[in-house]
Amino acid sequence: MELGTFSVSLAVKDLEASRAFYEKLGFSTLGGDASQNWLILKNGNHVIGLFQGMFDRNILTFNPGWDSNAQPVPGFTDVRELQRRLKASGVQLLQEADEDTTGPASVILEDPDGNTILLDQHL
Fold first, then answer.
1. Which of 23, 25, 56, 63 is nearest to 39 (CA)?
2. 35 — phi, psi (to 5°)?
3. Closest CA to 79 of 123, 121, 122
4. Greater pLDDT, 83 or 69
5. Angle at 56 between CA 52 and CA 62, to 5 degrees
6. What is the tens place of the pLDDT at every residue in 8-37?
7. What is the CA radius of gyration of the chain?
8. Which of these, 77, 90, 86, lies nearest to 107 by C-alpha position?
9. How far apart, in whole angstroms, are the C-alpha atoms of residue 20 and residue 12?
10. Are 104 and 121 in contact (CB under 8 A)?
11. CB of 66 closer than 8 Å to CB of 119
12. What percent of the chain clears pLDDT 90, i.e. is strictly above it?
């Protein structure tokens, strides 16, 4: 099952302090909007999102249809198809995508230890 590019979405207390810290580790800003309290940082193929005040816990994020530079990839598996496969294998979903739609959508689930996983399709 191809889930798309992977990143960790971090719930941070101070966006600027977190950005400065991760820049010291070699990350640079790839995208986002600091005025809206979120930034996407990249170091090589490693991507992290910094989100201040948007959610309570860190999230494992997969983006179907994107590569590690947030560029579209051809022939990706749509999030609604991923959802159907997960449900067929018995995975319980916390939030489902509307299967009657196309384009951007997301699915949320948790692993057995309560870690949140977001399948977030932007195309």
1. 23
2. -70, -20
3. 121
4. 83
5. 80
6. 999 999 999 999 999 999 999 999 999 999
7. 15
8. 86
9. 12
10. yes
11. no
12. 95
For residue 88, give the amino acid letter: A
**In the chain, helix, strand, coil percent, each to 5?**
20, 40, 40
The pLDDT of residue 12: 98
Q: Which two tokens stand for residue 97?
A: 């995508």
pLDDT at 69 over 90: no
Return the pLDDT at 3: 95
Contacts of 104 (CB under 8 A, 6+ apart): 121, 122, 123
Angle at 88 between CA 87 and CA 90, to 5 degrees: 65
The predicted model scores a pTM of: 0.90
Q: Nearest 5°: CA angle at 7, between 4 and 12? A: 150
Two tokens, residue 74 = 């051809």
Helix (H, G, I), strand (E, B) or coil at 21: helix
For range 91-119, the mean pLDDT? 97
